[in-house]
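Revision sheet: structure tokens.
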Amino acid sequence: MHHSVVTVPLAAAVAMLYARLAASFIRPGLCRLLALAPVLLLLLKLPFVVPLYSARGTAAFFLGWLGEFKLLLLASGRGPLDPALPPLPFVFTAALPVKLLPQSPDGGAHDDAAKTAAALPLLSSGAKVAVLVAIVHLLHGKSRMHPYAAFTLYGVFIYCFLDSLLPCLAATGRALGMELEPQFDRPYLSASLRDFWGRRWNLMASAVLRPAVYVPVRARLGAPAGVLATFLVSGLMHEVVTYYITFRAPTGQLTAFFLLHGASVCAERWCARRCGAAPPPPRAVATPLVLGYVAATAFWLFFPPLFGNGMDDLFFAEASALVSATADAGGRLLRSG
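Predicted:
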């Protein structure tokens, strides 16, 4: 077992406890930002310690992107972090891509949201882990596949990986007395690009980018500029995360992907306003169009920087090794029982 399994979470937890302490004594503003600067620098460094591609990308997403933005928002007195939170919930929500449910007046989380968050997350995660294993087996025949077929499997792999990991984190939070918002809401049912990006896909990123980028830009330049700026920052951060994974110079394709979708969301909003009296297309028509557009643009711009030039072979070898090791460990446990 590599030492980063212990040292990275431990260093992140200690850093977040320091951030909470500093924010408790220093008012929002430049002084708080300077006090948090060592933590911001540490979070950028920690993913480099992780040896595995997938784990390094996950750490970069958790710490180098979301953790950085949460602390920057904390420095200005905004965002999901509050120094008044107890230490454990603060560290949990600062270091992981999760958000606490708002509290009701009687001190508990909203009942409906809590029930939604608690609805069979582990069963769903188990099904997605089975899909992950099946995809790894299918990719043994990658050399005989069309590249777009392989990219489709990679896309399903990314979604299943994230949507199996995050509910497990939520279940851990509930075991520790916290109720957390879900981070995906069945993106495969999206009826529009606004629905996909704003209400269904990677909701923690939306929750961080909205106060950090969209709201201030919209206040000065209007909603379309706010949307484009948000997607631009998302694209740049995806370039950063991809660099952590591949150690290759950014190509700009990921930024282009998100700018294209930002422009598409703006166009979609404009069309919706112009055709306000017309009924929207039925979901049976809209959802395939939305998913087809996301897939087509991802084949063109999103997947090549992540999986092109031999990176897919490295990912596949790593995933195969992890699946084999997990299967061997499970077999040993069964035999020992």
